[in-house]
Amino acid sequence: MSQEQWKSKIGFIFAAAGSAIGLGAIWKFPYIAGTGGGGAFFLIFLFFTVLLGAPLLLGEFVVGRRAQSDAVTAYKKFAPNSSWSLIGKLGIVTCFILLSFYSVVGGWIIIYLFEAIRGGLNGLSQDQYGALFGELIAKPWSTLLAQLVFMLMAIVVVAKGVQKGIEKASKIMIPALFILFLILVIRSVTLDQSIEGIEFLLVPDFTKLTSESILLALGQAFFTLSLGVSVMVTYASYLPKTQNLPFSAISIIVINILVALLAGLAIFPGVFSFGMEPDAGPVLIFAVLPAVFSQMQFGVIFFINFLLLFLFAALTSAFSMLEIFVAATTKHDKTKRKKRAWTLGLLIFVLGIPSCLSYGVLSDVLVFDKTIFDLFDFTVSNVLMPLGALLISIFVPLKISKSALYEEISLGSKSGKMFFNVWYYLLKYVTPIAIVIVFLDVLGFLDK
Ligand code: PHE
């Protein structure tokens, strides 16, 4: 059965950038940067994105485009009768777990949107915003309902298919996200004391950098680019031979860095202008940001603006997590897509119920000292994703011939050859070694 294709080159770039831009850039990045040294963290994140993230992204693109098939079949095509297709299966399981708790946060965005629109976020004190966040996410029924709504939005789009669903939605949501961001950043950098926040993000102070923040920056670089789970393999499988892969990868890297920058510029100037602390951690967006906006004129409107762009970012990532699963189970049989999207999407919702409730009725349930949400997050972000990334970086140079790789990547010029060599050796040596170091560290092996 023939494989569906993206309708346009730019459609693919929006969809892949949509997968990349998500909670990672908008929620995690500001709070990790906030606790991990601001500008210095940003620089290290940039360094890892370019040196390690970019080669792996291009590697996943090559696998997908050359194989023209879903994440499991793709690896089988290069290495028949071997266990390498486990990489694809690992990616699917990882996305399954990831989306189950990702959708919980997606639900929180919807709850906050609802609260902001009905006026429930007006005029509280900073502490009250913190307390409100705790209260809102502890309510079982509304959080579950919001999580379900988030999943339904993802299901409806993915069920429509690659072109009519994912591509079309991304082509609207990603440009809209940029426009909403620009409005917000203009507001933010024109605040009276915005300069302190801008300096915090852009002027590196290396004394604030710890080995922990360096490792977080590496994990963040992979997470925000959706690497290691074969999502980018799946998206690239819908590409024709004419697409320039290095150009696509570089565009996505640039867009992703830009979004992290915009997120920082939208958030830190306000945080500093209104005398709040940047290092609040994971609650930065939900407990500190509403307090920041409440002090601005028309603040609620700006906060709604922020929540909308946040929702678009989370949704376009959710599409990719569901799509990898749908693609692998339908094997291009278009007649099965709708049914699979609904069944798998609802199953993911069910798996996400304990994570959702772990902020309320199940908050006492601890496994390895972590709540269910934290356990899932830790397993995915610190174990499964780096493991997948490591395996892909080993697989590509090992199982795909150098000439085939060159064919996919070279642009037919001399500079193409140099680019290829830099890419090839980075992927073959630097990426896996860096991942192993991070891996050993998160698992506690490098502790003194
Ligand atoms: N890149 C997404 C984000 O930053 C997360 C993601 C990881 C999406 C893996 C798909 C696959 O939020």
From TrEMBL:
Coiled-coil ranges from the UniProt annotation: none
InterPro entries: Na/ntran_symport, SNS_sf, YocR/YhdH-like
Location of this chain's protein in the cell: Membrane
Entry GO CC: membrane
Pfam families linked: SNF
Keyword flag Membrane: yes
Source taxon at top rank: Bacteria
UniProt cross-references to PANTHER family, sorted A to Z: TRANSPORTER
NCBIfam families on file: Na_transp (NF037979)
Protein name: Neurotransmitter:Na+ symporter, NSS family
